[in-house]
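User: What would this chain look like folded?
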Amino acid sequence: MTRTAGPAAAVAFVLSIATLLSQGQTPGDFAVPFHVGEVLTYDVAWSTYLTAGTATLTVKERRAIGRGAFAYDLIGEGKPSAFLDKLYHLYYKAESLLDTKALQPSLFTVYSDERGRTKLRTMRFLSSTSIEYEPKASAPREKYTVPSLSQDPLSAIYVMRAISLKVGQVLTMPVVDGADVYNAKWQIAGPETVATGVGPVSAWRLTPTLTDAKGKPITNRRVTLWMSNDAKKWPVKFQAGLAVGSFTLTLARATG
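Assistant: Here's the prediction, encoded as structure tokens.
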């Protein structure tokens, strides 16, 4: 089976990465603003709950993935507050292995625990244009064709951190999540001041317009990301409108 968003959708993203790779980079890791040991912790507000839980983004390690290649082990975790957890236990963990030279993911997993009902989804990037998807543990593996330089949802955040941004810029990035392929057309605005747990931060506002493989707008997933416009390029705030309500993640602290 083939799911593809079409070659035109990835052109801007391909050119951006190709330009960065050619700008005097010496052989070795791609120059990125994040580093091993970085942990960003967020307060999560959901609908009427001011503090519904916490989330973290972690650069766990730089690990060997074979044939002389290395990858950043990126982890995103989320859980409800102690009060909400007693009402309904939830835990989510997404993990991505992002090649340190090409900024391309090789493996993406999502683990969820909802009241003891656990599930593990696995997506393997076999080449620049193909993936293998396992919707749950031990399920038959499904293969899909995807646009060149596709990212998974977690790696997309870190790749955006590595790209130089400017106001008015529009960047299209293909994002793959299992059998679904999205075109994320990022529009850059700002900078504007964002209140965070580490103080006021000047940040770019990144608003992706999402479309599916056929170019149809996706209206039930509205996302806005604010990223600091300094050398660290921290994601300082997320806003997401989903079917289960609206979420706001605000940076509470940064360590590492």
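The chain has one domain: 7-255. If you want, I can go into more detail on any region.
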